[in-house]
Design goal:
Biased composition (Basic and acidic residues): 689-730
Helix content: 25-40%
Strand order of the largest sheet: 4-3-2-1-7-6-5
Coiled coil: 262-296
Structural class: alpha+beta
Number of strands: 27
Low-confidence stretches: 1-57, 157-175, 301-340, 354-359, 361-372, 735-745
Distance between the termini: 122 Å
Organism: Cyprinus carpio (Common carp)
Family: Belongs to the OSBP family.
Main location: membrane
Number of helices: 16
């Protein structure tokens, strides 16, 4: 047996042919003896690998916010995506000399957390928590990262044989080296295929020649030419054996090489399939976002009620059946932290999307009913807030642990509105109650009432100023009958503890009343305000009676840092007539949470506990609701170890969106359009109205020193009146008069204390008479509190 021949020895075989001059003779013999042209031998030349020319790689650059630590939070960084590597720098100027970090996308996992946040991790050693400036920018980055990962993932797999390099190339040359390796492998395989083809031709030719020689040997008589024929047969048999061995070795090399790379090809194929699915999903999501942006743009010039009709598209046409399933195929919700979100929502089966909302989608209000006819021009500006410095610590260090109402505060901490006016701001989005009054279903009505409860907090997001504490007997009226169809009245019914009663009635079929008492504590670093009391909303047409309570308001960074406000807690909105309930959860802000800030979630259930609607949004921006088609247990475990409920929902419908603040609001205490008009002077109001309060008026005009002196005078006057009432109460020896309130301002003028028939709680309910007194201009019964 000949020694093992490699494929490269085929070249030697060809040279041997040329040295013997057998190529021409064999071809000649093939023509003379067989009558057919034999296959011409090809020169077997092993192709040398060429240096590949790498294709230019796509590069994506931009600013992102990267999570650093719990002290600094998210910091702005310049990110560069190139050749499957994501690198970041502190600034664009650092790109030439200092790279702060690099992560290889080929082995990384990309996870989307919410509308702006996403995470890139390579299995534990490197994890980037990133935040984009907007949802559109986040989607652009996700698309670029997924494309880069798909392009380079199949080039980076662990070595399957010992012949692979044991060390990985440098980060800046890794992608190019792996691309060169694949190109070289493909060229080697092509060369092996050419070698196999050449060997096949040679084996066929030499086999035919050997067969002819054997046939000729059988017809030759023994003589002088016998030895020559035997020599030729021996030579051709040797060449055939050499060629056969080369063929076998070439096949063996090809098989070994194919086996070495088969796993990589399988992984690359699987990666391509997965990437195709991801690209299809991304394309679908981009199409939906584009459609949403188009509808939002068109909806900016039309009435909000037109957006609530899913049966009408953005062009005002009724879509076909196919369009309905395309519009309502998916419903997106923000993911909450495990200790916040108590349920999971997934899109419902498309068959359910044939159904639409009834009153949420129908009965759109006509332009005539939405149009506001102004009867008087309200002011749109107040004097800008002056910039006065104040030593906070000198005031606060003696106030720790005291009740807020007993702390003497200068007007520097205030805003030029009283607590009664702030309470009236709950009616900023009264349109939600107008729509709720028109609902035929109590469950859909509950959605609007729940959105109204959340909307009342939207005005507090930047309002870090403390409202003026109302004096006992102080009132505030908000008469918007001609503009908005409602009028409301607030009165301070108690001073220690401070409590205010509020009553609003609308010509459109609803009544809102509440009594709020504030329990507040200063904790040094933050201020907690706990509203006590229930809020009632009654609809005349359906006689539905709703009640709920407010959540806790926290003002952070009282001593050091920028003031900011957070709302946290839970609200249960209850319909006492039907037993329907909506449980709302306000997620508190946490340094350890990467969830969307100010998030609110809720579920609307009937009296049997069956979920019908899911609410989601933020208390400073918007609220949406989705109809629940099916619900089941089986989601991931919550913080308490129980399985979360999975709700299959239809596409979300927007219930409420915050109205942008007026221009220059940052210089006007961040007042909304309604808040700017609350302290506007009006004729005919009661002498106890907050608009007539002198210290508040002086502060609004920027005369803070005079406001502080006037505020101190009013507070001292109130203390004197209170001490006088206490002395009269102590002098009263008649048991029949025990429990009677004095007539010198201690008894509320327009409200009386009763036991609420629904909640069985003692509360102050409007007794009537105020608006009649205003029409008559008779305020003789009002005390002189200013």
């Amino acid at each position: 047996m000949l020694s093992r021949w490699g494929t490269t020895q085929v070249v030697c075989v060809c040279k041997h042919f040329r040295s013997l001059g057998l190529q021409e003779s064999l071809a000649h013999e093939g023509v003379n003896h067989s009558g057919k042209d034999t296959v011409k031998p090809r020169a077997v030349v092993m192709s040398e690998p060429k240096v590949p020319i790498p294709a230019p790689e796509d590069t994506y650059k931009g600013w992102l916010f990267k999570w650093t630590n719990y002290i600094k939070g998210y910091q702005r960084r310049w990110f560069v995506l190139s050749n499957g590597l994501l690198s970041y720098y502190r600034s664009q100027a650092e790109m030439g000399h200092t790279c702060r970090g690099t992560i290889n996308l080929a082995t990384a996992n990309i996870t989307v957390e919410d509308s702006c946040n996403f995470v890139i991790s390579n299995g534990g050693t490197q994890t980037y928590h990133l935040k984009a400036s907007s949802e559109v920018e986040r989607q652009r980055w996700i698309t670029a990262l997924e494309l880069a990962k798909a392009k380079f993932s199949f080039l980076f797999f662990p070595a399957d044989d010992s012949g692979d390099d044991s060390t990985s190339p440098a980060a800046s040359q890794g992608a190019g080296s792996r691309n060169s390796e694949v190109q070289s492998t493909l060229r080697t395989l092509n060369s092996k295929v050419e070698d196999l083809s050449t060997c096949n031709d040679l084996i066929a030719k030499h086999g035919s020649a050997l067969q002819r020689s054997l046939s000729e040997l059988e017809g030759v008589r023994l003589g002088g030419e016998t030895s020559e024929k035997i020599r030729q047969v021996t030579e051709r048999a040797t060449l055939f054996r050499i060629t056969s061995n080369a063929m076998i070795n070439a096949c063996r090399d090809f098989l070994a090489l194919a086996q070495a790379h088969s796993k990589r090809w399988q992984k690359a194929l699987q990666a391509e399939r997965e990437q195709r699915v991801r690209l299809e999903e991304t394309l679908e999501q981009l199409a939906k976002q584009h459609n949403h942006l188009e509808r939002a743009f068109r909806g900016a010039t039309v009435l909000p009620s037109s957006q609530s009709n899913p049966a009408i598209d953005s062009k005002g046409q009724v879509p076909g059946k196919g369009d309905v399933s395309d519009e309502d195929e998916e419903n997106e919700f923000f993911d909450a932290c495990e200790d916040v979100q108590e349920f999971i929502t997934v899109p419902a089966d498309p068959k359910y999307h044939r159904s639409v909302f009834t009153s949420l989608a129908s009965n759109p209000e006509s332009p005539q009913s939405q149009e506001v006819v102004p009867v008087r021009k309200r002011r749109s500006r107040i004097p800008d807030k002056p910039n006065y410095s104040l030593n906070l610590w000198s005031i606060m260090k003696n106030c720790i642990g005291k009740e807020l109402s007993k702390i003497p505060m200068p007007v520097n901490f205030n805003e030029p509105l009283s607590m009664l006016q702030r309470l009236s701001e709950d009616l900023e989005y009264y349109e939600l109650l107008d729509r709720a009054a028109k609902c035929q279903s109590s469950l859909e009505q509950m959605c609007y009432v729940a959105a109204f409860t959340v909307s009342s907090y939207s005005t507090t997001v930047h309002r870090t100023g403390k409202p003026f504490n109302p004096l006992l007997g102080e009132t505030f009226e908000l008469d918007r009958v001609q503009e908005s169809g409602y009028r409301s009245l607030c009165e301070q019914v108690s001073h220690h503890p401070p409590a205010a009663a509020h009553h609003a009635i609308s010509e459109r079929g609803w009544t809102l009343r509440q009594e709020i008492a504030l329990a507040s504590k200063f904790r040094g670093k933050y201020l907690s305000i706990m509203p006590l009391g229930s809020i009632h909303c009654i609809f005349e047409k359906s006689n539905n009676h709703y009640t709920w309570k407010k959540v806790t308001t926290t003002v952070h960074n009282i001593i050091v840092g920028k003031l900011w406000i957070d709302q946290s807690g839970e609200i249960d909105v209850v319909n006492h007539r039907t037993g329907d309930r909506c449980h709302l959860k306000f997620a508190p802000y946490s340094y350890f949470s990467r969830d969307v800030a100010r998030k609110v979630t809720g579920v609307v259930t009937d009296k049997d506990g069956k979920a019908h609607y899911v609410l989601s949004g933020t208390w400073d921006e918007k609220m949406e609701c989705s109809r629940v088609m099916q619900s089941s247990r089986g989601g991931e475990n919550g913080a308490d170890g129980r399985q979360k409920t999975v709700y299959q929902t239809l596409k979300a419908k927007e219930l409420w969106r915050k109205t942008p603040l007026p221009e220059g609001a940052e210089n006007m205490y961040y007042f909304s359009t309604l808040a700017l008009t609350l302290n506007e002077p009006e004729e005919g109001v009661a002498p106890t109205d907050s608009r007539r309060r002198p210290d508040q008026r002086l502060m609004e005009q920027g005369r803070w020193e005079e406001a502080n002196a006037e505020k101190q005078r009013l507070e001292e006057k109130q203390r004197t009146v209170r001490r006088e009432r206490e002395r009269e109460a102590n002098r009263s020896a008649n048991p029949a008069e025990e429990g009677k309130e004095p007539a010198d301002g201690g008894k509320p003028m327009w409200f009386e204390r009763q036991v609420d028939p629904m909640t069985r709680e003692p509360t102050h309910i409007y007794r009537g008479g105020y608006w009649e007194a205003k029409e008559q201009g008779n305020w003789d019964s009002c005390p002189d509190i200013f």
